[in-house]
Structures are given as C-alpha cells and as structure tokens.
Amino acid sequence: MINHDPTVEGHDIQHTTLEVLRKVRLSNKEILPTLEEYFEAAKSLKTQLILELKPHQNNERETEAIEKIIALAKQKGVDKKVEYISFSLHAVKEFIRLAPKDTPVYYLGGNKTPKELKKMRCAGLDYSLSVLKQHPEWIKESQELGLKVNCWTVRTIAQTKWAADLQIDFITTDIPGTAINYIKSNYY
C-alpha cells in the first residue's frame, strides 16, 4: 500500500489485511493505492519516483518487502526511474544490495557521516533540515565525495534560501511553487 505514514485511518498498514485497507477512504474520498497501481500510473510519466520504505517489525520482513518492491518495479518497467529512501539502515543496505546497479538509494536517519554513507555505497544523504543545520559541513563533504544531498522539509523562504546558499542538491518542500520561483529569481 502507498501511504506516507505507517498508519491510515487508525489502521497499522503492516498488520492490516489488503481487504480491510482497500475499504479505507482517504480525505479526498479516494481509496488507498497499491504499489502496483502507483507503478502503473507512473509508467507513462517522466517523473523520477522516490519510494520510501518505512521500517518494518524485523529485518526479514524488510528484506521480503524490498525483494517484492524491486521485482514489481522491474515487472512494471519503472525500475530505472525509482530511487529508494528509508530511515531503516537495514533497508538501505538491502536496497543497495538488491536493486539494479546504480539505483540511487538514500539514508534518512541523520546519524551517519558522508564518509560512512559513501562506504555503504549510498547515492547520498537525505537528512532533515535540523540535522543539516547541526552539520552544515556534511553538505560540502558529501558533494566532494560525489554524494547528493537532499534536505527535508523546507517550509519557508528563509529555509529555501539557506538550502540554496549552501548549494544543496535537492529539497523536499511543502511550498514547491514558492520555492521554485524564489530559486529561479535569485539564483539563475
């Protein structure tokens, strides 16, 4: 199932049957989409897909989920346009091990240095704004190591300016139109 949070409408997704989850209505009255539906809808798009795997109850379940995700991405023909992210260090390592070579995989946990991520073969770090503000040196260090940097969640123009001034590669933002216009007006 595709959902940002590990729960939806009071249901723990990991421990709820598909039959029950398919009856859940989102606030816009749509049903919760499956991964297969998500990949099917994305096939014709030029958009790069970012898939976050939430930590599971144990490593075995994470590995099983990753194997199924990668197989389905290949089956649906979107494997070249999916990047993977996770707070689970185990999941990140498994995506790196099992995904097609050169598939971008990013760690969200905020507790690994750029050198540690490079050694793991991550494509980069994907850390919260607060972590990067505590360790701004990690931005340049990452880029010098050939790693990309994503910062989340940028919610203001001041935060956008901070990220742009430090030449962060990507931002995750709640204000995409405003952020794009600000960056285009002030940096290009």
Structure description:
By secondary structure, the chain is an alpha/beta fold. The protein has a domain at 130-188. The chain has helices at residues 18-21, 35-42, 59-75, 89-98, 114-120, 129-134, 137-144, 157-165, 176-187; strands at 7-8, 11-12, 49-52, 82-86, 105-107, 124-128, 148-154, 170-173. A 6-stranded parallel sheet has the order 3-4-5-6-7-8. A two-stranded antiparallel sheet has the order 1-2. Helix 8 (157-165) links the parallel strand 7 (148-154) and strand 8 (170-173). The mean pLDDT is 96.
Q: How many H/I helices?
A: 9
Helix content: 40-55%
Low-confidence stretches: none
Largest sheet: 6 strands, parallel
What is the strand arrangement across the widest sheet? Answer: 3-4-5-6-7-8
Strand content: 15-25%
**Spatial shape:** globular
DSSP strand tally:
8
Distance between the termini: 39 Å
Order of helices and strands: EEHHEHEHEHEHHEHEH
Mean pLDDT: 96
How large is the radius of gyration? 17 Å
Structural class: alpha/beta
Essential attributes:
188 residues, alpha/beta, six-stranded parallel sheet, two-stranded antiparallel sheet, 9 helices, 8 strands, globular
